[in-house]
Amino acid sequence: MVRLRGTGSVFKKKDSRYLYISYYDSNGVQQQESTKSELRQVAEGILRDRLSKVEQGLPVEQLKKLRYKDLRAALITDYKIKENKTFDKDGKFGGLAHLDDFFSNRLVRSITSDTWKKFVQKRQQDGAANATVNRARSLLVRMFNIAKREGKLSHIPHFMRLKEAKPRVGFLSPTKFADLRDAMPEHLRPLLIFLYFTGCRIGASRSVKWDQIEFEADRALLRLEGFQTKNNEPLLLPLPKELSETLKEMKRLDDFVFDVTNLRKAFTAACVKVGLGVKTGLKPWQYQGLLIHDLRRSGVRNLIRSGVHRTIAMKVSGHKTEAVFERYNIVSSDDLHDAMTKVEEHFNGSLKEVEGWGSQEK
After folding, report:
1. 222 - beta bridge partners?
2. pLDDT band at 48; cut points 50, 70, 90
3. Do 210 and 130 share a structural domain?
4. Same domain assignment for residues 179 and 297
5. pLDDT at 229
6. Which of 4, 35, 215, 347 is deepest in the core (most CB within 10 A)?
7. pTM exceeds cut of 0.85
8. Cβ-contact 27, 16 below 8 angstroms
């Protein structure tokens, strides 16, 4: 059968039982490859796929050799150029370890929807939460999106997303916080007070230096730089009086204000001591109860309940969007009781005296 020019060809080689295809790539270079099949129908399908990629300007030969590590490298480069804060203090990129272990040196064309399901099953067997698996999924999808944007891929497989549990609602009342603060080692109390009153991120708190603090008559002011906040906006933050007085009396051992030595271990032990958590095993991570991040939720809640305007509260806590901020603005049972009390006060404690209450329209 005579084929039209530019439509490629299917042929057999003397020394092989498989059919071969031939076509010109987007650079005008002739390519030949084995289809690994003796069926002409299969060979024609592979040829159509190659020609389709050529029409889209995709480098077919490069696609055949593209590996997971190439997509990973492009992701790292993209984050570095955009100065994303995902890198930890050691310059490592969080959340990639399990993807690296599973996909390692795989060809990109072998990473399919079915491959992803196998990864999900493995992580679930390892005890990973759905939210943790979804964070890995976000990274993988971003890798593929970057590759497609750069013309290295024509399509992205469907990587299913798992249903996540509702956001945590952990927070501390002032009384419980006082108990926790007193149970913490003395060197960690200033940091705890700072987190509880401001809702600031632990990452930003670790990097605060003495030259960022200005002492005034009744309180101290903290100047957070753009690189220390999640929304990249600098912030002048008034500090609680208790913390301001503590900082004035503190010895400056180095450039950093807050000592974080053994923070998580001490926090877990203090929570267990005051009844805010329980150990479920001997390992550090075998614990259930209040988390350090719950102090951020408490800080947001404290700001709103104290009457601080939402716009100002969001600046203090460093939240940029209403949607994320609202997840931290937790409503407790006490809030609901207070709301009902206000309704009752509106009716002077009795609904029966309200004219027309309980009557039915005729």
Report:
1. 213, 237
2. confident
3. no
4. yes
5. 67
6. 35
7. no
8. no
Residue 282: predicted pLDDT: 77
Domain boundary pick from 33, 56, 79:
56
Fill in the amino acid letter for 279: K
Work out the percent of the chain whose per-residue pLDDT is above 90.
21
Query: In angstroms, rounded to a whole number, what is the distance separating the alpha carbons of residues 334 and 339?
Result: 9
Q: Is residue 61 part of a domain?
A: no
* 298 and 172 Cβ atoms separated by less than 8 Å: yes
189 contacts 180 by C-beta, under 8 angstroms: no
Could you tell me the strand order of the sheet in which 9-12 lies?
9-12, 19-24, 30-34
What is d(CA 157, CA 298) in angstroms, rounded to the nearest whole number? 40
Clarify whether residues 226 and 311 are in a common domain: yes
Q: How many domains does the chain have?
A: 3
Shared domain for 202 and 139, answered yes or no, is no
Q: Helix or strand or coil: residue 97?
A: helix
Which residues span the domain enclosing 16? 9-56
Identify whether the C-beta of residue 119 lies closer than 8 Å to the C-beta of residue 159. no
Residues 75 and 184 in one domain: no
* Number of residues in the chain: 362
Are 99 and 145 members of one domain? yes
Instruction: Please return the burial class of 219, using the count of CB atoms within 10 Å of its CB with bins 0-12, 13-18 and 19+.
Output: middle
Collect all residues with Cβ–Cβ distance below 8 Å to 196 and sequence separation of at least 6. 172, 177, 181, 295, 298, 299, 302
What's the pLDDT score for residue 333?
Answer: 43
3-class DSSP state of 181: helix
Q: Averaged over 314-342, what is the pLDDT?
A: 48
Residue 144's pLDDT band (cuts 50, 70, 90): very high
108 CB-near residues (< 8 Å, 6+ apart): 63, 66, 67, 68, 70, 71, 147, 153
Q: Residue 238 phi/psi, 5° resolution?
A: -70, 140
